Amino acid sequence: MQRNPDKFWNPYLAGVALGLVLLTSFLVMGSGLGASGASLRAGIAALDLFAPGHVASTPPLARAAASPHVTWLVFEIFGALLGGVVAAYTSGRLRGEVLKGPRIGNGARLALALLGGVLMGAAAKMTRGCTSGQALSGGALLSVGAWAFMFSVFGGGYALAWFVRREWR
Amino acid sequence: MTFPVLPPLELGLVAAVLIGFGFGFVLERAGFGRANKLAAQFYGHDMTVFKVMFSAIVTAMLGVVLASALGLADFRALADHATSGTYLVPMIAGGFLLGAGFIVSGYCPGTSFVAMASGKLDGLMTVLGVIVGQVLWAELEWRPGFARFHGAGDLGNFYLWELFRLPARSGPYVVALAVTVMAVGCFVGAEKLERVLAGRSDPSAMPTPAGRPGRFVFAGLAAAAALGLVGLATPTGARESGRVATGLAPLALARRVFDEPWKLRIVDLRSLEACSAKRIPGAECVPQDRLGSLGLADASPGRDLVLVSDTALDGVPAAAASYRGRVLALEGGWAAWEAFALTPPAPPTAGAPAAELEAYRLRAGIHAAMTGMKAAPPPPVPAAAPGAPRKAGGGGCSG
């Protein structure tokens, strides 16, 4: 197979493929895809190292630590990491680098990536799921909350895009 | 109903890795492991995020719609199982916050994992940030000031066809067709916009036009949506039975009666006599033929509706199926409840394993609590004889 890092799948065919993965998850597991749940479980594992007992005394953390669905998400994200490595290797995109626009330094870009991650992590806990769990999975099942969330995500992105344009363009 | 399969735990975890593999692989190949390509969505010159996301949503939606039309699944039951309830206030506020985090970090939580897997250091930083953010809000969400916000605008499991007041049976199919038509219209618009902005696009995030495969996808999605509506017109056995209630075991019900009775609305469908003699604490006695008088279609969906009948319930009565929240049926009906909670459990034999002892203690506790709640004694009859002479000039202010 020829490796061309600039070649991506046709977006509509990729969308159909992603939709079929999601449909498989619905029909087999009765639940959709997700990502942020696995992050929460990783945070819980870290907390257990530094402050044992704290998780048990914080109800939202204790619930996530005991939830079989969150355990399922951890395995699903493990699979997603494998899939990501294989897809990146076979397309020639597997290499250590920092992705950014031409007008920003590496340090600033990494700091902004961390900051954006913190914002998204808090937001995804608030909304009971991120763009995978809420917008994609809930959207496909026509949940009102998921659709309201999805429009808000695009709204938030477009509203702030002009202010951070130096990061990308 | 054949789907969902719901495999046992270990098999489910194997499925998780396989499904996750497909998830990560497709995201990477779509270009979602690259921050520039994702961020370009918000500058208008590369609409890949929108195209991939909406064609995925429409594909999965139509798949569930077609499975429901064939009687293999139940759209509503699957959606109740797979989606969280709608909490309008934190979902809109959190959506804006997540959108802001998206354009600042260049990823969403799912794609940051894929970026990390393909060696992107900014992806790794985003993954770490998401972990910190998740723990931060989990620390805050249940504390007094925050809990009100976190639970604000609670509409229960609420769906688009209910928002537009469409009938429960045909609603999902009609909305699915409308969403498909809207999505294809937006795809055509996105292609136009990309061509208009093409001169300004940057080399690291080139737009990917629909081309022939794209047009083929549009036609396929439209055909599947139309097929779903046709399938609705031909009645099949599975759909006739209407909504299927999720089962609730007596033990689970007992726990919820103790722990969170405010989240339950128990409706006892047995005859009035039977129900007034003995019922689950907090249950309303509403014989099945009078269920319509509760107006469940317009009732607040915040609490879970628990239906209790004489024996196991086959099919949800129409009046209860219109309830917008979760509908649960007590497994085995009243007979199972009586056997579980109102009959003293057999004491364990000497040398029984610890698990059995624990189960006995739990059941004995439930039995004691459920049967120990004695009826209040009848109110005392007023002793004063009627027509007793009134004391003249009683004193005080009456003068």
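The first helix of chain A runs from residue 11 to 29.
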